[in-house]
Every structure is written in C-alpha cells, then in structure tokens.
Write a structure and sequence with these properties.
By secondary structure, the chain is mainly α. It has eight helices and no strands.
C-alpha cells in the first residue's frame, strides 16, 4: 500500500529535523575554528550565514509540522451512515440537524419548500443533505478555502442536491410518507442466480492474481 500524504509529511519533518541538527553541529565546529584563527572577518561572515540557514531550517520545520493539521482541516469527512456506530450516529445526527436548523433552512428557503417531515426516512435525501453539509463546511469553515469554493457550493452542490431530494420525495407530501420507488421493489430480484453465474464466468475469464495479499488496483482502507 502506498504511503499516505501524512506519512510522507512526517518523514519529511524528520529529515528536516536531522538536517537542522547537522547545521547546529556545523555551527559549533565553525565557532571553535573562529576562536582559534585570526581571520575573524571572513569567518564571522560565514558563521552568520550558517546562523541564518539554521533559522531558515527551523522555520521550514515549523511550517511542515503545521501542514498535517491544515490538511486535516481541508479534508472534511463525509460519513457513510450505514458504517456509523451508536456514538458516531448520535454525533452525526446532531451535527446535521443543527446545521439544517441554524443555517440551511433559514438561509435557503428552497430547501424547506422541497423537504417534507419524512425526509430522514429517505436514505437518498439523507445522503444528499450530508453531502451538502460536508461541502458547506469545506467552503465556509475551512480557513484555507477560497471564494470559488463558496461559489461552487451555491452554484453546483446546492442545486444538484436539491434535485436529488426533490426526485426522491416525489411521492410524499406534508402529511404522508411513501417509501422511495427503489425500496418498493423486490431487491433480491436484482441479485438472482443469473447474476452469480455471470460473475463466476467473468472471474473465470480473468488472469490469475499476482502473488500478493492485495489485489492490484484495490487500496486497503486505513
């Protein structure tokens, strides 16, 4: 499995720290040499340059240490509802509901006109709202976000998610909930014996896997 960005950054931070230590050692030896020689003018200038390099490396090291936290701020997790445990679900429902009540519905009335009281019973609607929340946080709460991120949320994400929600709530109204069309079908019909035969034939026609614990092109999740 390839190294993650954070692993690369951590290795780079260690490399810079080692380089800084080497510079500090060089500065000590240079000062000892300056003390024993008479040509103090040129060597003092060189010593000053080494000192400036040390400061520069310290600044770079500090900047690199800040990068992982900044990258984490940029990566807003869009959670998968089926994967949440009890505690995570409590936090997710609270975060989404608070954001809808405080931000989404007051500022964007079109959402309220589309949503019905049964919205939380529709997985597609719930996923659309979750995506809206995560992209909104990335655009408006991330200190490294650009103005174009907010524009993209307004012009792209909001209209697209409104369309998904409207389509999924088409059979519902303010007083009655209907299961989404896809859930009204017999799901097992989509996974018949014919599918198993087809999959077996597809697998049989492929090359043997390499001698590895992980199939090529498939990344293990961290």
């Amino acid at each position: 499995m390839a190294e993650s960005d954070d692993d690369v950054l951590a290795a780079l931070i260690l490399d810079v720290a080692e380089l800084q230590t080497a510079v500090e050692g060089l500065q000590v030896r240079l000062r000892e040499a300056v003390a024993g020689l008479s040509a103090l003018g040129d060597l003092t200038t060189l010593s000053d340059r080494v000192a400036h390099l040390e400061e520069a490396f310290s600044s770079v090291a500090a900047r690199l240490e800040d990068l992982p936290s900044e990258r984490k701020a940029e990566r807003v997790r869009v959670w998968s509802w089926p994967d949440l445990d009890a505690q995570e679900a409590v936090q997710a429902w609270a975060a989404l509901s608070d954001w809808m009540r405080d931000v989404l519905l007051p500022r964007y009335p079109d959402v309220e006109r589309i949503l019905y009281p049964c919205w939380y019973r529709h997985p597609k609607v719930l996923d659309a709202l979750t995506a809206l929340y995560a992209t909104w946080v990335a655009a408006y709460r991330n200190p490294t976000a650009s103005p174009s991120d907010a524009a993209a949320w307004l012009n792209t994400w909001l209209p697209a998610m409104l369309g998904h929600m409207k389509d999924d709530l088409v059979l519902c109204n303010r007083h009655q909930h209907h299961r989404p069309l896809a859930q009204s079908q017999d799901v097992e019909k989509l996974f018949s014996q014919d599918l198993k035969v087809f999959v077996d034939q597809d697998v049989a026609g492929r090359a043997s896997p390499p001698k590895s614990n992980q199939a090529p092109g498939i990344s293990a999740q961290e």
